[in-house]
Every structure is written in C-alpha cells, then in structure tokens.
Design a protein that fits this description.
The protein is α+β, with helices and mostly antiparallel strands. The protein is built from five helices and eleven strands; from the N terminus they run ααβαββααββββββββ. Helix 1 packs antiparallel against helix 2.
Length: about 270
C-alpha cells in the first residue's frame, strides 16, 4: 500500500470520528435542555384577593399601590453545570477541529512534494566547466555530492549503452547524477576514496564510479537522474528517477575494478 493511500485512509477515519463526536455532543445537549425545561416548569401560582365592595354611603379613598417587581430566580446547580458542560464541549470541539486542520496540512505536504526547490524539483548543480574540472581527471575523479538534490555527480566516459545512460544525458554531458539511496534497502551510500566505489555501510552493497553494480545484495546498479545543460549550468531533474542498470552491466573498463582497498569489508 502506497503512502498516499495510507494518508487518505487516515484522513477518512479522522473525518468519520469527528462526525461521531459532533453527533454525540448534539444528542447530549438536547437531553440536557429537556431536563432543564422540565425542572423550571414546576413553580406555583400566586393568587390575589379581590377588593371589598365599598359602602354605599361612603366613597373610599383612592390609593395607588406599586406592583412589586418579580425577583429573578437564581440559577440552579443543574443549570450552572449545563453551562460548564457547554463550555467544555465547545473547548473540546475547537481543539479537535484545530487538530484536524494541522493534520490536513501535514497530509497535503506529505502527498505533494515541494515545488519551490529542493529534492523532487530541478536542481542547478553549478557551472558545467567547473563541475567537469572538479569531478573529472583534473580532480582525480572524485564525485561531487549535492545535498539539496540527494545525488552524487560523477565523471563518465563509457560507451553509454543501455536505457540508464541513454535517457539521462550521460554521454553528451560526460556526467552521471547518481541517487544516493541504496537500491537494496534504502541506506545512504557514501563514496570510498580508496576503492573509487560507492559502498553501502548497512549490508555491503558496492557500486562502481558510474553507479553500476559491483557486488553485494543489491539487485541492480544505483538509480539516477536525467541531466541537461541550460546555458552553462548543469540542471538535474530529481523529480524523475531512472532505474539503475541491471547486474552484469559494465560500460567503462577504466573503473570496472576497485582502485584500492574497500572502505566496507566484504
């Protein structure tokens, strides 16, 4: 199951849980309102005595009597408790909605890669002449690591046979952009300066300078990214991963064998 499918399932379950949570709150509010109205409707009635008839031979004095104001009934403990429960319900609801918002933003960030630079986009690896001088014969064939793109730039003067070279511009640019992730179990593969191989420290997989399989449990050579020249700049498309060459591929005899001692023992 892909990470995107897992994220969508988690989002769906979160929305369903939120719906059940809100429905439970609504049912509890209706019950509490019914109880409050029932307790407040049992008050008694006030009776007023009728005035006596005036004697016919005497006119009564006219007086104005002020009707006393009704005192407000204090809230009962049950009514106060309902208010506190309402406050807590709203607080919990607000917290849950805030959590869903942050979770949704995190999920979207996980499903869609960055579009403003970094891994997954086109990376400018530098000036072509400068890069070629650094990784070529003048620089001792030492590969250049580009951290924001997670790849190694290496020099290449092989035959260029196979899809892994024909689709990445290796022959035209004399460069190969190797994804640093080991194709065995995904460890980060460093370069060994003594053997001129890329040697995985986790399980001992070894790859030649141009990323071809040399030894260990890896099923193939290192995956790589397409390279194009834009003016004088080396542009590497890290959004397109080209599968590495199969075992048994050897297109550059100069680095077919280790140049010295291994960094990771066999």
């Amino acid at each position: 199951m892909s990470p995107g499918t897992i994220a969508l399932i988690v989002v769906a379950l979160s929305v369903a849980a939120w719906g059940l949570f809100m429905a439970n709150i609504a049912i509890r509010r209706e019950r509490k309102a019914a109880l409050a109205s029932a307790s407040g409707s049992g008050g008694g009635t006030t009776t007023v005595d009728a005035p006596k008839e005036a004697e016919p031979e005497k006119q009564p004095d006219v007086t104005v009597q002020k009707v006393p104001e009704k005192k407000k009934k204090p809230l009962t403990n049950e009514q106060l408790a309902v208010s506190r429960r309402q406050f807590l319900n709203r607080a919990w609801t607000g917290s849950f909605l805030t959590f869903l918002g942050f979770f949704g933003m995190g999920t979207l960030s996980f499903l869609w890669p960055k579009v403003l630079g970094g891994f997954g986009t086109e990376i400018n690896a530098g000036n072509y002449d400068d890069v070629l001088e650094q990784v070529g014969p003048a620089g001792g064939f030492a590969p250049l690591f580009i951290p924001e793109g997670r790849f190694w730039l290496t020099f290449y003067e092989g035959t260029g046979e196979g899809v892994a070279y024909e689709t990445t511009g290796a022959v035209d640019t004399k460069l190969v952009a190797l994804y640093r992730k080991c194709v065995h179990l995904g460890c980060s593969v460093p370069h060994c300066p003594t053997s001129s191989l890329f040697e995985c420290p986790c399980h001992g997989s070894k790859y030649r300078l141009n990323g071809e399989y040399y030894g260990g449990p890896a099923p193939r050579g290192l995956d790589r990214f397409p390279i194009v020249l834009s003016g004088s700049s080396v542009m590497v498309d890290t959004g397109t991963v080209v599968v590495g060459p199969p075992r048994g591929t050897n297109t550059w005899e100069q680095f077919a064998e280790p140049q010295g001692a291994f960094c990771v023992p066999v």
